Amino acid sequence: MLTILFDGIAYGMLLFVLACGLSITLGLMNFVNLAHGAFAMAGGYITVIMMNHFGISFYWCLPVAFLAVAAIGAALERTLYRRLYKASHLDQVLFSIGLVFMSIAAIDYFVGGQQQLINLPPELRGRFELFGVGIGRYRLFIILICAILAAVLQLALTRTRLGSQLRAAVDDGRVARGLGINVSVIFTLTFALGSGLAGLGGALGTEILGLDPNFPLKFLIYFMIVVTVGGTSSITGPFVAALLLGIADVAGKYYVPQLGAFIIYAVMVLVLILRPHGLFSREGGR
Length: 286
Prior knowledge:
Layout: H1 2-28, H2 36-54, H3 58-79, H4 89-110, E1 127-130, E2 133-136, H5 137-159, H6 161-171, H7 173-178, H8 183-209, H9 215-230, H10 236-255, H11 262-274
Antiparallel strand pairs: 1-2
Helix pairs in contact: 1-5, 1-8, 1-9, 1-10, 2-3, 2-8, 2-9, 3-8, 5-6, 6-8, 9-10, 10-11
């Protein structure tokens, strides 16, 4: 039981890192970016190429994946995304889902459609026993990394000048500009942060989730569920939702495997019946 709980927490933490960038762009920037999974896939493929073709350490691949995908996100925000900030959500959905299919086709053409594998460092492989609980080394690594990220993000968005400027820019961009806030730069940095977190999540998730060109479509629904259940007004909501859904998914597949992935959808429906706007929500928008 405790081993299942541990694995569920690790899976939930991974879902949080993958989905929190979408929470930032959707909840704080009010942009429906369904191409979020493509950024995660980019981080995964950057890690695979660096490790398998250049022999670079997995530990170096993680920050490189974050920075590289953040740079890609910033470039796309400056050239494409910002043109649709004031467009309808339907236009944003059509644009971003188009990017998903373009990224899938590009990866399939240049890399191929086969499943990608990486060899983790020896110290991250296998399990060990602690008080009778089987703990996977890599899952423990994911929990530690993701817990640190969650704490840093929460502090950055609530206690720093950048977080205050972002909230002001989102709530009323015109007033924020009148106060001297460079809304354009704030949005670029925020979008880059969300994209980089997706890339980091993709790099961390390659070993557990698998990686192939269809990754953005396979896991897009999971990202959306985390953001929907958690609410889009803060980092806390997606964090709690990701843990809840991760534990429910792992436990459900272990105890009632015949139901498959039904458990995670049942939890989503139950939460939304009780909390239609998610676990944490606030009114406001850009």
